[in-house]
Write a structure and sequence with these properties.
One of its GO terms (molecular function) is DNA binding. The protein has 86 residues and is mostly helical. It contains three helices and no strands. The model has no long low-confidence stretch (mean pLDDT 80).
Length: 86
């Protein structure tokens, strides 16, 4: 029974520490959703474009790896054929 009380006290003591003053995140939530300004919108657009370019680079890199894998596999087969006596 005391372990149940200890658990409850442990969880409430952490919440009670910051209850004296509201945190910044609570103040922002109470004010409601803010409309993004031009700087934020520009940053979001730049981030979106950077993410798109990153995905394209990754796709090209993987395609290059696949091409290299196929080329090396063919080269390995040729070497294997040239080493085995007919």
């Amino acid at each position: 029974m005391s372990s149940h009380l200890d658990q409850r006290e442990g969880s409430s003591s952490g919440a009670a520490m910051g209850s004296g003053t509201p945190s910044t995140s609570n103040q922002q939530q109470e004010a409601g959703p803010r409309t993004p300004d031009a700087k934020t919108l520009r940053r979001l657009a730049q981030n979106r474009e950077a993410a798109r370019k990153s995905r394209l680079r990754k796709k090209a890199y993987i395609q290059n790896l696949e091409t290299s894998r196929i080329r090396l596999s063919h080269l390995e087969q040729e070497l294997h054929r040239s080493r085995t006596p007919n």
